[in-house]
UniProtKB/TrEMBL annotation:
One of its GO terms (molecular function) is protein serine/threonine phosphatase activity. It comes from Acorus calamus (Sweet flag). It is an enzyme of class 3 (hydrolase). The keyword Iron-sulfur does not apply. Residues 14-288 form the PPM-type phosphatase domain. This is protein-serine/threonine phosphatase.
């Protein structure tokens, strides 16, 4: 055994807070080939020190081509890590990470914009270091956390103009000054589809890329950092192909009791059964497991009735009181720029 790793484990045990074990799974069903993902479980805060390991899980949902999604997958992590000063202790590093994520998103966007390409991408980017998860996002992909007691919390912000009144007002104010508009597509005198920002016709307010939309759309991410209890939890990270079909609680419930690889596959399967494969549908499941547990959720779920899922989903979409984002049992820090 590596002596550094052994010493780190003993030190954590002495503190009464040994590091958790991570298990992850991935599954996708592709329609357009514009979804891309990143899974890195070998990152180190301190080069050569295994006790400083952390993991990165991300989904990039491209539109108008996959160029921005591929570019962001290749460059974003490096830009984030380059923005963190060297020599920081772990707690200092976690604090610096929040601003580094914002800086990394903006730098990646500027670098891609110089290429003059017109594609864009949403990003949901998750860093897991011990019991702490830091989530940065732009667009309408989503990351949820299911705590050990079954409580489901949404760790991202939906940037769709149709759903987010604050973002809609922000974009509308900037568009009005510059001669654009926020509205639905109009064909033959009939408005249809979701609210979009014109020029460009983008239906989300934040993304990386999208040079044809201009500065109405910004790359600055919403950043949330949560510290889990020692009971652990499950992260479900997915593109909108999942969330357009399943509410957050439904996605968590349909895969309870399954190990992470099977859980990711089940979430995608349920989403496709509910709405069909209309879009790229991608899911990453990450289990943060206490070191003295063999699994996170020992019970096996009952088979989900797809018809009931569809009815529940429609009722949830129409309800004025959608899922409350309950984070009361977690230690959280939220940064929105």
């Amino acid at each position: 055994m590596n002596p550094k790793k052994s010493w780190s484990w003993l030190a954590d045990l002495f503190k009464g807070n040994p590091r958790p074990r991570l298990e992850h799974g991935f599954w996708e069903e592709s329609r357009k080939g514009e979804d891309h993902h990143l899974i890195r479980t070998d990152c180190l805060r301190v080069p050569g020190d295994p006790s400083s390991a952390f993991s990165v899980f991300a989904i990039f949902d491209g539109h108008n081509g996959s160029g921005a999604a591929i570019f962001t997958k290749e460059r974003l992590l490096d830009h984030v890590l380059d923005s963190i000063p060297p020599g920081l202790r772990r707690e200092q590093w976690l604090v610096a990470l929040r601003q580094a994520l914002s800086d990394g998103f903006v730098k990646t966007d500027k670098e891609f914009q110089r290429r003059g390409a017109r594609s864009g991408t949403t990003v949901t980017f998750v860093v897991v270091d011990g019991w702490t998860a830091t989530v940065a996002s732009v667009g309408d992909s989503r990351c949820i956390l299911e705590a050990h007691d079954g409580t489901v919390s949404v760790l991202t912000v939906d940037d769709r103009l149709e759903e987010n009144s604050e973002e809609r007002d922000r974009v509308a104010a900037r568009v009005a000054v510059r001669g654009g508009r926020v509205g639905r597509f109009c064909g033959c005198g009939v408005e249809r589809g979701p609210l979009r920002c014109w020029p460009g016709g983008l239906c989300i307010s934040r993304s990386i890329g999208d040079t044809d939309v201009g500065d109405f759309i910004v790359p600055d991410p919403h950043v949330k950092q949560v510290k889990l209890s020692n009971n652990g939890g499950r992260l479900i990270i997915a593109s909108d192909g999942v969330w357009d079909a399943l509410a957050s609680e439904m996605a968590a419930k349909c895969c309870q009791g399954l190990p992470a690889p099977e859980a990711a596959k089940e979430v995608v399967k349920q989403a496709v059964e509910v709405k069909g494969l209309r879009d790229d549908t991608t899911c990453i499941v990450v289990d943060i497991i206490p070191p003295d547990h063999s699994t996170l959720f020992p019970s096996v779920p009952k088979k989900k009735n797809v018809l009931k899922s569809l009815i529940s989903w429609k009722m949830w979409r129409k309800s004025p009181n959608k899922l409350e984002k309950k984070l009361s049992s977690l230690s959280t820090v939220e940064v929105t720029i």
